[in-house]
Amino acid sequence: MKKLVFLSFVSSTFIFQLLTFNLSAQETKITAAVMDLEAKEGISAGVVSSITDYLRTQLVNTGKFDFVTRENMEQILKEQNFQISGCTSQECIIEAGKLMGVRKMFTGSIGKVGTTYIVNLRIINVESGKIEKAETEECAKCEQEVLLVSIRNIAYKIVGIGIRETVQPVSAQGGGVKETTWEKDGSQMVLISAGEFLMGSPEGKGAADERPQHKVFLDDYYIDKYEVTNQQFAKFLNAWNKDTDENGQKMIYEDDWGIKKAGAGFQPANGYDKYPIFNVTWYGANQYAKWAGKRLPTEAEWEKACRAGSTITYYYGDEKNGLKEYAWYIGNSDHKTHPVGQKKPNSWGIYDMQGNVWEWCSDRYDANYYKGSPYKNPQGPSTGSFCVLRGGSWCCGVAVPRSAFRSKCEPDFKFNILVRDFYGFRCAASAH
């Protein structure tokens, strides 16, 4: 550290080289940088920038290289009066790599031919000037959310650790993410096709009630693209004309961020129409789902939709640092809920599956249920004092909003009245 103080007068280029040299010596990782992908036919510059940032994150998550951040890369090249915009030729990329003092440059392109996205990625050795490795990934008839799976795949392929996920359309028809608008409550729903997935956490990871990790087969079903909002729940309450369910159980508690009495009816708190409903009991969530002609998702349906084909810790990867891009949690929520759909969706186009509000599932909770869970369409225990909650909320730390994390609460908050601020839900519906 003393050396860095004495050398404070040198350019940021030399400082970066010194730092990366020290890191390489400690971690034996090769220094590298990622250039913006070249936009081909059918791809806008704005989309390319976002996809490149996502690619860089996935490459960092592999742990194989020490990558220069976008900010450092731009600063170093600016000091050298190097024009990074339009730098797509191999000669230009090698020159940029030399100026940054890195050994490898990741570069490539993304384009669209008809309905198929084509992603090309290659590694250039800065010293030799040769292409060391090249990979191509195609995503046929997929939306941009599903394209992210292809980006993740090519990141892992090019560094030689295999494909982490399989690009698979959600639609049984194979046409990418298939959505429908549910007439009763106006919600958008995503079709999840029938198939098998790996549920829970492997040995040595997660909590005891997430094990054993096991295979589950689910029939086709729909799940809400967004969490149910205050506006939607107020519409239900006004149609239902009371705040208790068909058995007299309380469904909702008034709140300044949620639902409030308005004369003889109910309305969202001012400015909170698009915020997720919370302070809702399991009975309220269940009755809303029935009213809408839907149901609460089973715990297995919730986890499959959350994972979106992945088997990793979070649906975007294993690194906690990426959570802020996909979820509202204690590190970025400012201690409150936020309007639905503001963060990035998972690769099946479903928003806020991690963070914002906990989500009720239809299942009763049993810590040992996975030990004897049915293979096909598990429904959870038939009895129990607690109901399952999934996804974490705005008040949770990074360890909680994992795809496999399980929580529980009494359906009416009987002994947990202080935690009701965290609980909301989304609905599901059988496809047949």
UniProtKB/TrEMBL annotation:
GO terms for molecular function: formylglycine-generating oxidase activity. InterPro entries: CTDL_fold (IPR016187), Curli_assmbl/transp-comp_CsgG (IPR005534), Sulfatase_Mod_Factor_Kinase (IPR051043), SUMF_dom (IPR005532), SUMF_sf (IPR042095). Residues 1-25 form the signal peptide. It comes from the Bacteria. Residues 187-428 form the Sulfatase-modifying factor enzyme-like domain. Keywords: Signal. The keyword Signal applies. One of its GO terms (cellular component) is outer membrane-bounded periplasmic space. The keyword Acetylation does not apply. PANTHER family: FORMYLGLYCINE-GENERATING ENZYME, SULFATASE MODIFYING FACTOR 1, 2. This is Sulfatase-modifying factor enzyme-like domain-containing protein. It comes from Candidatus Desantisbacteria bacterium CG_4_10_14_0_8_um_filter_48_22.
